[in-house]
Amino acid sequence: MAKSTHSLSRTPKEAIESSCQQIMRNIPTPAWPSEQALRVIHPNDNRWAANDPNRPLTIQQHLLVREFMRDCIFSAAMIRAGYKDTSNADRLKKRPNISKAIKRSLLERRDACITTADAILGKLVQMTDVTIDDFIDWRGDSIELKALADINPQDLAMVKAIKQGKNSSWTLKLHDKLVVIEKIMRHLGML
Residue 38 in contact with residue 58, Cβ under 8 Å? Predict the structure, then answer.
């Protein structure tokens, strides 16, 4: 058990939630189309068939697709886009041009979020490099937690659990290195 020289400002749950929020903020949302790319028609323009998937969206339909990408709840997106009635949500979602725009936006988001095997392997290797010495200071007969500012943020992400016990003692648990090494070896075909 290590004694703390400071109080941790976040619990592990808060740290994970913060990391998830940061990741979500870094995922690009489809940008509002530029004026050149934004083909907008008047709702009563009949030059395209109603079931034509290439029929340009109205401004409200563009807004609907953009709002849908926020939480993937179509009826809520309709309300945020300014539709008064959500009773025809299923019919509107099945319109070929709206359906095509939603699929295109989902594909753009998926492509922006692709994680490569190399990136995952890099994280696993990083987990094997982290040791308890990255988090504590050995001072004579005592052991103290390092200040959060002194810990590498990437190393902090490798902590499995932190618990505060009685008498200001702390328990720090890292991920099981043998499991991580086994995963790396399986990926590399060594097992």
Answer: no
Residue % of the chain over a pLDDT of 70: 76
Place of tokens 């190393």: 155
Q: Which two tokens stand for residue 36?
A: 């050149």
| H or E segment to which residue 68 belongs | helix 59-71
What pTM did the predictor assign? 0.45
**Would you list the DSSP string of 19-65?**
HHHHHHHHSPPPPPPPTTT--B--TT--SS-TT-TTSPBPHHHHHHH
CA dist., res. 60 & res. 19, Å (int): 34
Determine the 3-state secondary structure of 85 from DSSP. coil
**What are the b/e assignments for 35-44, b being 16+ CB within 10 Å?**
eeeeeebeee
Q: Quote the CA–CA distance of 142 and 3 in Å, as a whole number.
A: 8
Q: How far from the centroid of its chain's Cα atoms is residue 189's Cα?
A: 30
Mean pLDDT of 25-48: 56
Q: How far is CA 23 from CA 27, 28, 66, 96, 120, in A?
A: 6, 10, 19, 32, 15
Q: Check whether 81 has a pLDDT greater than 60.
A: yes
76 band by pLDDT with thresholds 50, 70 and 90: very high
Q: What span, in angstroms and rounded, lies between the C-alpha atoms of 44 and 61?
A: 13
